């Protein structure tokens, strides 16, 4: 289909630049994109008859990474192996 | 709350019946990384590509101290071990339990649906039977008409009988009255005649008649003596 309407996973690497330029950057557009991504994730991993640990474990892993990224300053300052 | 801005029933797709849930979720390897990632790297790097990428990334993070090893790392390692062990050991049981709960819910809903369908089916049968019964209403009305005609006839005849009896009673009364009157007149006349006759018998005549009777009796006794 046309470039502006394809989801992110079907966009080739070379066309990523143009794809980013076509997506809407208004609050409604971003909110819509976030909502679509969340509902897609739920429909694929959570709202199934026989889900496994994969559904929430990926969410928890993402949360761990995000919190590590937010507290990176703190980690690097209080490390045991500081070079100072 | 009705969203008045949403158009109703303008498209083919509608909300019911709801499509069933998919059987299995998306494939995830090692519980963390979706299968699409491995498929994405397979054409270029083969099977071991993502694992090499993961190892290289890990070493880079550790060596550059982008990932700092501290006490929380040990805690995370212990927690992860316990979690993985728990999932491996009790995962199947929990899944079976959840499946059983789901099965019960679905079975009860299905039973309700079947029961409702059965009820409606019996209602249809009953309705057809009632329709068949309603076809016989002409016979019913004929019987009722016959009954009413019978009642009318009976009533008419009873009243006829009553009329007859009443008329007969009145005529009998008249007849009885006339006969009584005639009898009374007759009696009165007889008594009157007798009274007058007895009154008209003067003492003279009585003596003469008594003497005559005695004479007759004597004559008769003489003739009787003679015959004896």
Automatic annotation (TrEMBL), chain A:
Molecular function GO terms recorded: proton-transporting ATP synthase activity, rotational mechanism
GO BP terms, alphabetized: proton motive force-driven mitochondrial ATP synthesis
Main localization of the protein described in the UniProt heading: mitochondrion
Pfam families cross-referenced by the UniProt entry: WRW
GO cellular component labels: mitochondrial membrane; proton-transporting ATP synthase complex
Residue stretches in coiled coil: none
Keywords per UniProt: ATP synthesis, CF(0), Hydrogen ion transport, Ion transport, Membrane, Mitochondrion, Transport
Compartments (UniProt record): Mitochondrion membrane
InterPro entries for this protein: F1F0-ATPsyn_F_prd
Family listed: Belongs to the ATPase F chain family.
Name the record gives this protein: ATPK synthase
From TrEMBL, chain B:
UniProt-listed InterPro entries: ATP_synth_Bsub_B/MI25, ATP_synth_F0_suB
UniProt GO cellular component terms: mitochondrial inner membrane; proton-transporting ATP synthase complex
Compartments, record wording: Mitochondrion; Mitochondrion inner membrane
Region (Disordered): 1-22
Pfam families assigned: Mt_ATP-synt_B
Keyword Transmembrane: no
Primary site of residence: mitochondrion
UniProt GO MF annotations: proton-transporting ATP synthase activity, rotational mechanism
Gene3D superfamilies linked: 1.20.5.2210
Keyword terms: CF(0), Hydrogen ion transport, Ion transport, Membrane, Mitochondrion, Mitochondrion inner membrane, Transport
Its job: Subunit b, of the mitochondrial membrane ATP synthase complex (F(1)F(0) ATP synthase or Complex V) that produces ATP from ADP in the presence of a proton gradient across the membrane which is generated by electron transport complexes of the respiratory chain. ATP synthase complex consist of a soluble F(1) head domain - the catalytic core - and a membrane F(1) domain - the membrane proton channel. These two domains are linked by a central stalk rotating inside the F(1) region and a stationary peripheral stalk.
Assembly with partners or alone: F-type ATPases have 2 components, CF(1) - the catalytic core - and CF(0) - the membrane proton channel. CF(1) and CF(0) have multiple subunits.
Sequence similarity: Belongs to the eukaryotic ATPase B chain family.
Name of the protein described by the UniProt record: ATP synthase subunit b
Taxonomic lineage: Eukaryota, Metazoa, Chordata, Craniata, Vertebrata
The gene coding this protein: Atp5f1
